[in-house]
User: What shape does this take?
Amino acid sequence: MKQITFITMFVLISIGINAQTLEECRQLAREHYPEIKQYNLISQTEQYNLSNAAKAWLPQIALSGQATYQSATVTYPEALQGMLTTNGVDMTGIRKDQYKIGVDVSQNIWDGGQSKASKAIAKAEAIEQRTRTDVSLYDLNSRIDNIYFGILLLDERVEQTNSLIKILESNLARMQTYVKNGVAIQSDVDAIEAELLTAQQTLEQIKVSRECYRRMLELFIGQQISDNKLERPAMPEITSRVSLRPELALFDAQTNKIEAQRKAINTSIMPRISAFAQAYYGYPGLDMFKSMTSSAWTPNAIAGLRVSWNIGAFYTKENDLKKLDLAQQQIAVQRNVFLFNTQMQTTQDDGEIIRLRKAITNDKRIVELRHSIRIAAESKFENGTIDATDLLAKIADETSALLNQNIHELELLQTQYRLKTTLNQ
Assistant: This one.
């Protein structure tokens, strides 16, 4: 047992260390999110509802007891009462105080399809609740993507800032040497050192923001992520623009539930047939003549078939069906609005993808040119044809060009994943 526990802990630790990809973070966030427990609760509720619907076919037993006092009871006609009295027969009649302790048993024979309709509604409601949970959990993907790509972007800024610091440190060391040799002045050293301190300060601020994002991601996935750089996901391939979002399944589930409710309304106007048996012990009994001569309690029973028909259900049937029609129309409107918004988002993402691809093509050439310009500026600075301010400007331009290129690449990747999430492809 200890060995199994150790192995389990080792696997969990390994998962925590390897949780470096977007898909792994998505899956862990889904498993760790509290709403995942809804699936089990929905299944249990469904089983209870189905069990209750099935119990409609079990015998229905009711126990009862009553004690009453009546203002009048069954009596003999006066002529007959006089004859009996003349012949010495004492017929006191039914007493006004009466008592019963009984049991009623009823067994459905045909319920007009009510229990079947109740089961269909229970299943339809469970499916609707599951798909609603699917929608809620699917929304996690966008939240995880935003945090994950935010970390990647901050990682890139850290890397570019570190590169800038290395360039500034190299130029600062060279400038200090120039000052010692009398080739440069102290103000040039101060300008580069000030820029270096600013870059180091910016780096610390970026690291703090990145750490905040990483802690947010850890809260979502329920475990720590390693200090290594998160993996940049591969560019997804999206071959279709047909939406497969879980919201569409939710609209279908809502429509199916309405159809189940429609069938239940139709069954409400059907007659019910059942067998019944009633038994009671008390006074008076079913034998009224015997009870008129004796106040003793007696056992009594009656059995038979019962047909009941709630005609009042016809009064509200038409309105209830019209309400369901309106609900179905509302679902259709919601579906159309969702598809419209999805199409708008897809169109916007497609346009953004085209823009970013063109920008990246230009970025590559700009980076090459900015790098050449910076190298040339360093050479000119050594020859004394430009000052430190001009050199710093060229360094900043190269750093900005590199950062823009990497940001555009990450934005393109994030937009592709946003489109993938929008369509659930």
